[in-house]
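Why predict the complex rather than its parts? Because the way molecules touch one another can change local conformation, and only a joint prediction can capture that. The input here totals 228 residues.
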Amino acid sequence: DGGITQSPKYLFRKEGQNVTLSCEQNLNHDAMYWYRQDPGQGLRLIYYSQIVNDFQKGDIAEGYSVSREKKESFPLTVTSAQKNPTAFYLCASSTAPDRRVWLAKNIQYFGAGTRLSVL
Amino acid sequence: RKEVEQDPGPFNVPEGATVAFNCTYSNSASQSFFWYRQDCRKEPKLLMSVYSSGNEDGRFTAQLNRASQYISLLIRDSKLSDSATYLCVVTQPGNQFYFGTGTSLTVIP
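Output of the joint prediction:
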């Protein structure tokens, strides 16, 4: 089955610790995204990547880092600099903007999410 | 100004009712439009794309008004299983996706 897999489902971070959230997709999508969702809030973009070995900061990148060494993988590290990391983290992927794909099919698909809490 | 704005609700409606959600977007260069559904503590899932001519999928009808930069979702004959948060999503050039904060719907028996 094609899809996006996030792991772990739940994660606990100790103060001063860096933690890494995994995101893997087998949809052959070029673009991948990380969002943060706080209770009762909308999705806020942390980082996105349109192609391997390239990524861009989103609206709330401070305290986070990413890498995109492989097309199918886009891990997110929550660093100790992120002082309020407790949230629901969602990874998504979509087709690339430069492909001649009918725009209506440029849909974003989400993983099941990782819930991060601070101990 | 937010890229996408939605009435957060909550909307509490009886089974069988018709309910409509609205969404406005600020960038006239926006390209694609979608409604997603998000259940409690789950990821968002695509409900339907929104086309300029309007489109229907069973009990769900989506409309787009580019002149007014307005998107709507109509749910007819509401079911208990329709209870969820509905997210309006807009894309802009550069493959940027912008999400509304969502409209909460509870269908009451």
